[in-house]
Design goal:
Elements (H helix, E strand, L loop, with lengths): L21 H8 L15 E4 L18 E4 L1 H7 L17 H4 E3 L5 E3 L6 H14 L7 E3 L5 E3 L2 H21 L3 H14 L2 H7 L4 H9 L1 E3 L2 E3 L31
Antiparallel strand pairs: 1-2, 3-4, 5-6, 7-8
Helix pairs in contact: 5-6
């Protein structure tokens, strides 16, 4: 789960209509679900960390610090469940990259970095809250072909793309190829998979984190929390506290 820096809100007061925050959120964080990391060109929505459907959080309905971006699947699983901030790892206040690991067979699991039961329970609760612990969901089309319709299989597919890109870089280790790989990663999403695939390449990891400028254009994953990584692209834990409630658990 990519740790993000939403930065201070674009206005002093809360949003009267929370949907008005969407353009600024997408501009700052990119068109990616804050939970599953997929690139969602359409139907990405403003996600309320503390659910707007619960009366006790009604005062947070327009609050910038309560917003993330969510896809239909993650939002649909999370629904209006009460979120205790000390019981979940959140990408705007924890180093969520440190907390989870992505396996080549499509799973998202608590990271081996979590060497105590309390934090492992938090990781498992976070995965269950967003449905990232769900297995594959496949259907057969009219031609008898199996079609993946879930996040699990999409992660497997992106692993293949990332590993093929790594082979391409091995064959042609040029700056142009590195930039192309970052563009490919940005086009597919799944930041954490690309980071795992290039775990032994500090330069590529930093490019995925920082992006790069070329002719005034930005490539990479906008809004990634740079203070969650050291100069070699390894995760830093605990995340430096950014003033948000319940943060810096990892």
């Amino acid at each position: 789960m990519r740790p993000i820096n939403r930065r201070p809100g674009p206005q002093i007061l809360d949003f009267e209509n929370y949907r008005d925050a969407f353009p600024e959120l997408q501009s700052r964080l990119g068109p990616y679900c804050s939970y599953c990391e997929r690139r969602i060109p359409t139907q990405l929505a403003v996600e309320h960390i503390q659910p707007k459907g619960l009366k006790r959080y009604e005062h947070l309905k327009g609050r910038w610090d309560n917003f993330l971006l969510g896809c239909v699947n993650c939002n649909g699983t999370k629904t209006d469940k009460d979120v205790a901030l000390d019981k979940v790892f959140l990408p705007d206040r924890d180093n969520t990259f440190f907390a989870f690991t992505y396996t080549k067979d499509g799973q998202v699991l608590p990271s081996p970095n979590l060497n105590d039961d309390a934090r492992r329970r938090i990781a498992l609760h976070t995965l269950a809250l967003t449905g990232l612990d769900k297995g594959p969901n496949e259907v057969m089309d009219e031609n008898g072909k199996i079609v993946a319709i879930d996040r699990y299989n999409q992660r497997k597919e992106i692993w293949l793309v990332a590993l093929e890109s790594k082979e391409d870089l091995r064959d042609a280790p040029t700056p142009q190829m590195k930039r192309q790989i970052v563009r490919t990663a940005q086009g597919h999403g799944f930041f954490s998979i690309w980071m795992e695939a290039f775990a032994d390449d500090a330069e590529m990891r930093r490019m995925l984190i920082d992006g790069f400028d070329r002719n005034g254009e930005f490539y990479g994953f906008p809004g990634t929390a740079r203070d969650c990584f050291d100069p070699t692209g390894q995760p830093v834990s605990p995340r430096p506290h950014n003033g948000l409630d319940g943060g810096s658990k990892v």
